[in-house]
Amino acid sequence: MHPFTGLATREDGAIKICCRSQPVAYIQDESLEEAWNNSTMLKVREQVLNNERPDVCKACFDLEDQGVQSLRQRHIKPLIPESRVNLYPDALDKLEDDYSMPFDIPTMEIKLNNLCNLKCRMCNPLDSTSWTDWNEVEEFYEKENNFLAPLIKEKVNRPGQYIGPFDNSTNWWTSFDKLLPHFRRVEFAGGEPLMDPTHFKILNALSPYGNNIEIKYATNGTKFGINKTENVYKYWPRFNSIALNISIDGIEDSYEYIRGNGNWLQLIENIKKFKEIPNISRIVGAVAVQVSNALDLDNMIRYFLDDIGIVFYANMVRYPQVLSVQVLPAEIKQKVVEKLSSVRQEVPKFNLVKENPILKDITYQQIDGVINFLQSDDKTHLWQDCIEYNTRLDKTRKQSFFSVHPEFKKYV
Fold it and tell me: Which H or E run includes 13?
């Protein structure tokens, strides 16, 4: 559904089909309007409709091959209300014979810059201005030929550098203004959008059409705005609804270890405050599944669905590969599978699932996806690199891998 219903952006200026795809253009070279029907987009639409796999969509197909439901699959199946096949069932009606489409797209996924107050272990300087110790771990990305290694070398000239190519881009603002009356859903990620002045500038532009728009966030949940006038309490009431995907990658110590600068107790208080805002449609706990939270996943599921009342949703960390759960020693992997299989049996009894029965199958899907991914590939040869990666960051961040994860000591 994505090539027919929207575009996405990345902090370096990339224009993409969705947040997972490879770029189809760059804002420095093309406007959104030009990118929407450029030769790459036309070819992707043709390939999708011929049941082919476009190269730029490799990320989703790789996950599907490992038994994990991809973003692509979620939006062509009607299980979740926000599936694009539900939201835009008539999207293909506007498709021309040459695979072009009118520039009146209903959805955008927006990453504008790398402004962020956290420095998460699986993140990088292109996603966060707080990531100032990239030099400690850059070689791990280089060893796996990760696209981020040369990209960061090109874009980031100093630690903590701000990257914001959309801020003053005519290619961005002129095209975006044309889309304002057509939007039905606008999604923000970052960086951290709730501390970004440009994000609030966009909310202001969207406000006249707000009754028809749902705003969705991928947020770290640590901020409500930048000051007393630019904040969620001023802008969110102007929109039809607000959906939050709050990144929560552990519980207590493991959360603070993974999400550098994060405070667990403050995060939980913030979630309670978010839940009090009247037009919040849902809150999802988005978990980047990785080495440092693998043994916490069962307790996270219980805590989310039974205690604090938010949805559990899992993303697989695939790079850096040294943080993937696929690098875990076999005994640990088996323990993770046992814990997840056990909590799977409890799902129907959780409070939030009782209130929203649709969450039973959704949670089963998330659990099964983690197990399938964990077992689909063996990267245990990278286990020592995983320890080294984390130990290097520990030195600059004054943390300790084995203090947070004492169960890993015997596998050194």
Answer: none
Give the list of residues 6+ apart from residue 328 with CB closer than 8 angstroms, or none.
291, 294, 336, 374, 380, 383
- What's the one-letter identity of residue 369? G
Mean pLDDT of the chain: 97
The DSSP symbol for 236 reads G
* Percentage of residues in the chain having pLDDT higher than 70: 100
SS3 per residue for 187-218: EEECCCHHHCHHHHHHHHHHHHHHHHCEEEEE
Neighbours of 166 (CB within 10 A): 22
Q: Which residues of 291-316 are buried (b: 16+ CB within 10 A; e: fewer)?
A: bbbbbbbbbbbbbbbbebbbbbbbbb
Query: CA–CA separation, 195 vs 275, rounded Å?
Result: 19
CA gap 71, 5 in Å, rounded: 14
Q: Could you give the CA distance from residue 204 to residue 198 in angstroms, rounded to a whole number?
A: 10
Q: Tell me the per-residue pLDDT of 224-235, one tens digit each, with 9 for 90 and over.
A: 999 999 999 999
pLDDT-based confidence at residue 210 (cuts at 50, 70, 90): very high
According to DSSP, the β-strands at 23-26 and 185-189 are unpaired
Average of per-residue pLDDT across 58-67: 94
The contacts of residue 198 (CB under 8 Å, 6+ apart) are 112, 113, 164, 166, 167
Burial of 236 (0-12, 13-18, 19+ CB in 10 A): buried
Q: How confident is the model at residue 305 (pLDDT cuts 50, 70, 90)?
A: very high
pTM above 0.90, yes or no: yes
Buried b (16+ CB within 10 A) or exposed e, 104-134: ebbbbbbbbbbbbbbbbbbbbbbbbbbbebb
Coil vs helix vs strand at 306: helix
Cβ partners under 8 Å of residue 205, min gap 6: 176, 177, 180
Task: For residue 182, give every residue at least 6 positions away whose Cβ sits within 8 Å of its Cβ, in sequence order, or none.
Answer: 104, 105, 106
